[in-house]
Design a protein that fits this description.
The chain is α/β, with parallel strands linked by helices and 329 residues long. It has a single domain, classed as Spore Coat Polysaccharide Biosynthesis Protein SpsA, Chain A. The chain is built from 10 helices and 11 strands. Helix 2 runs parallel beside helix 3, helix 6 runs parallel beside helix 9 and helix 8 runs parallel beside helix 9. Bound molecules: guanosine-5'-diphosphate and magnesium ion. The site of guanosine-5'-diphosphate (GDP) has 19 residues, from strand 2, strand 3 and helix 4. Belongs to the glycosyltransferase 2 family.
């Protein structure tokens, strides 16, 4: 593994890995002339109460152009709430376009792959629906993507990072798995199993993702190394899941993470020809939902975003109109 794959740690300020790829970083001044669009991908499995916290914040987030929600056939009203936002977003306005995809609950990895394949913007941010990851941190992730990194992973360790959610056992397991990943892939990561990640759309096609479960985060990280992507870590604070309980099983999913990182280390070069968010194990058939009979409605004034105060964002109006014209919703 060449040193050019070393991750740059960013507890607020990026540090290039031993100057290994600083030459490749984008000249920010020059880049500032290009407008790039952003998709948030959110997997949901019975997260209605959490979505009531998260969705208004995403909908009002000025960084976002598109929100892709991949729902695992939730039975608690998650789907209806997401569909209400998808419906509302068809009207051009100062908000992102919301797209809802439904698929059988085959695991977070399957949902993420579906969401990544559906995302249409230049940059993609992945976050959980449980309200543990704050959209206020988007700017920090995106700044590193704009700076030229292709894969930016959040870390709950180091200066500025933290977690109110990790149990002692999960903390210990994550430490051990991160240590092993660093040995196997010659990295300096501080956090392996954290799903707050941002990636350039073009790089998604190089990751060759095949996971269906929680090991997807590990697969993304190690395949980013195998694909030779420029990787950075950024400090992030994970709060407790707001409602409900985690779907993760510490022992079962820890084992899957371990197996994945070891298998991929000795799997030879990553075959880009079979790469792509939809590559690998077949995905269950997903339904791209049109917002039909709705039993939920979008709050009129999303917190922190009074519609009349919102800036005129022509690009969003254009995008919403374009997507509705092509019948994507
Ligand atoms: N669509 C879909 N989402 C899932 C599935 N399993 C978990 N998720 C979502 O993945 C995210 C992470 O799951 P979570 O239970 O919070 O795991 P933790 O953060 O590791 O404790 C949450 O937004 C879940 O709703 C699934 O089978 N299908
Ligand atoms: Mg969570």
């Amino acid at each position: 593994m060449s040193s050019s794959n070393r991750t740059a740690h960013a507890g607020g300020v990026p540090r290039t890995a031993a100057g290994a790829h600083s030459d490749n970083l984008v000249n920010l001044t020059e880049h500032g002339r290009r407008w790039r669009t952003v998709t948030a991908v959110v997997p949901t499995l019975n997260e209605r109460e959490n979505l009531e916290w998260l969705l208004p914040r995403l909908y009002a987030n000025e960084e976002l152009d598109e929100i892709v929600i991949v729902d695992g056939e939730s039975s608690d009203g998650t789907r209806e709430l997401a569909a209400a936002y998808a419906q509302d977003s068809l009207v051009p306005g100062p908000h992102p376009v919301v797209r809802l995809i439904s698929q059988p609950p085959r695991g977070k990895g399957a949902a993420m792959r579906e969401g990544l394949a559906a995302a249409t913007c230049d940059m993609i941010i992945m976050l959980d629906a449980d309200g543990s990851m704050d959209p206020e941190e988007f700017g920090a992730f995106l700044a590193l993507l704009r700076r030229g990194y292709q894969f930016v992973k959040g870390t709950r360790y180091g200066c500025g990072g933290g977690s109110d959610d990790l149990t002692g056992l999960r903390r210990l397991g994550n430490r051990a798995l991160t240590w092993l990943a660093n040995r196997l892939y010659r990295q300096h990561w501080t956090d392996l199993c954290y799903g707050y990640v941002a990636v350039h759309r073009d790089a998604v096609d190089l990751l060759g993702l095949r996971s269906t479960g929680f090991e997807i985060e590990t697969e993304m990280c190690v395949n980013a190394v195998r694909a030779g992507l420029r990787i950075a870590e950024i400090a992030s604070h994970e709060t407790e899941r707001r409602f409900g309980v985690s779907n993760l099983n510490t022992w079962r999913d820890g084992w899957r993470v371990l197996r994945t990182m070891v298998r991929l280390r000795f799997a030879g070069p990553l075959d880009a020809s079979t790469s792509g968010a939809g590559a690998g194990a077949p995905l269950p058939v997903a339904e791209h939902l049109s917002p039909g009979a709705l039993t939920a409605s979008v709050p009129q004034a999303a917190p922190g975003a009074a519609a009349e105060d919102a800036p005129d964002r022509l690009r969003l109006s254009w995008r919403a109109a374009a997507l509705s014209r092509t019948g994507t919703e």
